[in-house]
Amino acid sequence: MKHLIFLIFPFCLACQPAADTAQQGTQADTIGYTGNHLTEKKDTSDLEKARAMGFDTPYLMGQFDPAKHPDFVQVPARYADREGLLLRKDTYEAFLAMYETAQAEGIQLVIRSATRNFNYQKGIWERKWTGQQKLSSGEHAAQSFPDPKERALEILKYSSMPGTSRHHWGTDIDLNAFNNRYFEEGKGQKIYAWLTANAPKFGFCQPYSPKGPERPNGYNEEKWHWSYLPVAQPLTALARAELQDGMISGFKGATTATSIQVVDNYVLGISDLCI
């Protein structure tokens, strides 16, 4: 049944972008699973698909140049807040279908961030690590958190360690704003309501749902972050099978990855609807 679903799902994304409205929670009916046996079967199938698609740990960790990768395309500036953003072609095509439907319904989607490889993410992380760039709280991380593990945990509230970001994969996009408050009132609230009701029809899921009993670990909630599941799910399975904390290196503060258990708690600390 899992293989049948995966064959049909991308086809329906392309041919029926205006399908009946479905809440994000209905993803569990089509691409989510409950129970250990079904979860294990799904992980195995997704892992097989990841390997068949040629994915490996360097790809997982963003150790490539997306501008030179044949599966990537530059996002036209009309869909983004600047030129030069890159996405996987399949992710971009799904976004384009979603964008056109949203626009027809009076919703304007703008990509604020897309693919970020290891070196790009390293720049973000190290600017925050050294205090060159302040945290979202306004704090200077190096001064406020001299203990390395504590500092890393503060940065990890919203930013990934290089080698662990879903943005490495070309499947994830940040839309419209980097502030949850924007999506809780006015225009932003309408955009978020539209996304939660409609994004799953195009294959997108919000991986960083509210923290709580169902998602106790990982980054804080990010209403702006959406992931293209037909490709991200196999990559998540590959990360579960092959990515290890000891592989996370090559940047300031990397030695904290093992004590934090960054793979289990952050790479895999996503909404059940996106697994």
Could you explain how this protein is built, in words?
- With 275 residues, the protein is α+β, with helices and mostly antiparallel strands.
- Helix content is 43%, strand content 7%.
- The protein has helices spanning 2-15, 27-30, 36-52, 57-60, 89-104, 118-130, 141-144, 148-155, 186-198, 229-242, 257-260, 262-267; strands at residues 72-74, 86-88, 111-113, 172-175, 204-205, 225-228.
- The strands form 2 sheets. Strands 3-4-6-5 form a 4-stranded antiparallel beta sheet.
- α3 packs across α10.
- The radius of gyration is 18 Å and the shape is globular.
- The two termini are 17 Å apart.
Number of domains: 1
| SSE class | alpha+beta
Give, in spatial order, the strands making up the sheet with the most strands: 3-4-6-5
Strand content: 5-15%
**Mean pLDDT metric:** 89
So, CATH architecture?
2-Layer Sandwich
- Termini separation (Å)? 17 Å
Helix count equals 12
Q: How can the largest sheet be summarized?
A: 4 strands, antiparallel
**Would you state the CATH class?**
Alpha Beta
Spans where pLDDT lies below 50 across 5 or more residues:
1-36
Helix content: 40-55%
CATH topology: Muramoyl-pentapeptide Carboxypeptidase, domain 2
What is the CA-atom radius of gyration, in angstroms?
18 Å
**Total count of strands:** 6
What is the overall silhouette?
A: globular
Order of helices and strands: HHHHEEHEHHHEHEEHHH
